[in-house]
Amino acid sequence: HLSIRRQRQMCIxxxxxxxPYLVMAAVLAGVHHGLAQRLAPTHPSTGNAGEEADPAMPLxxxxxxxxxxxxxxxxxxxxxxxxxxxxxxxxxxxxxxMADVLPREYDWYL
Length: 110
Known about the structure:
This protein is an all-alpha fold. The protein has helices at residues 20-36, 61-69, 72-78, 82-99, 103-109.
């Protein structure tokens, strides 16, 4: 006898720069991995789930990209070359962004 408990999974993507297809691929990979490995879910959040940062969650872009490149799990789901290619592109975009002087910097320093 199989007991199924209904649960709601929320993934709120509030950033315009997030590719919705990549976000969905990562979410589905995580769900599949959790089900395939029979991982126990964490306790449900109540209230503001983002109020307390998960200490395991990288908060800096470069840290997240390093972890993506080193993730055998994501390489299994996205293909062995994709994580490194994605990280390389995002690092180049970030470096190009940081090379520009923003109008606010002109206002502050000149």
